[in-house]
Amino acid sequence: MSNLFAIGRPSANEADVLVGDAWSKHFNGQNDAALEQFRKLAERYSDHIDANYGLALCLKAAGQKDAAIGAFSKAKQLCQSELEKKPDEPDRYMMILRMCDQSITLLGR
Fold first, then answer.
1. Of 1, 12, 28, 44, which cross-links 16 as Cys (Cβ 3.0–4.6 Å)?
2. Distances (CA, A) of 76 to 3, 53, 91
3. How wide is the angle at C-alpha 68 spanned by C-alphas 63 and 20, nearest 5°?
4. pLDDT at 31 over 80
5. Which H or E run includes 96?
6. Domain count of the fold of the chain
7. Where does the pLDDT of residue 86 fall: very low under 50, low under 70, confident under 90, or very high at 90 and above?
């Protein structure tokens, strides 16, 4: 099982490994399989930023505009929560926040 997600992270838990596998499917053009996997992961690990962000990207790729906006909004909310908890580690969360905002703006047009 590929685990692109866990590279550079201090430790990978089960959710990270499964999210990494879903990202691998998405990057390899298997959007339907990735979408289903991200959907299950976002339900099981509702506060996992990357599961929710991956779900949003897959929904966007599938043309499910309203669902994608909802998923981007949730990922954004999770990032804002992490920024409040870890104000000394803003880079990753700020980057995801900006990408969520851009996608929400583009989908809202």
1. 12
2. 23, 8, 14
3. 100
4. yes
5. helix 90-107
6. 1
7. confident
Query: Which CATH number is 41's domain given?
Result: 1.25.40.10
Summarised one tens digit per residue, pLDDT across range 32-51 is 999 999 999 999 999 999 99
Q: Is 79 left (phi over 0), alpha (psi -120 to 50) or beta?
A: alpha
Buried-exposed string 67-87: b where 16+ CB fall within 10 A, e elsewhere: bbbbbbbbbbebbeebeeeee
Q: Which amino acid is at 46?
A: S
Angstrom distance (rounded) from CA 42 to CA 59: 13
Look-up: residue for tokens 């995801």? 96
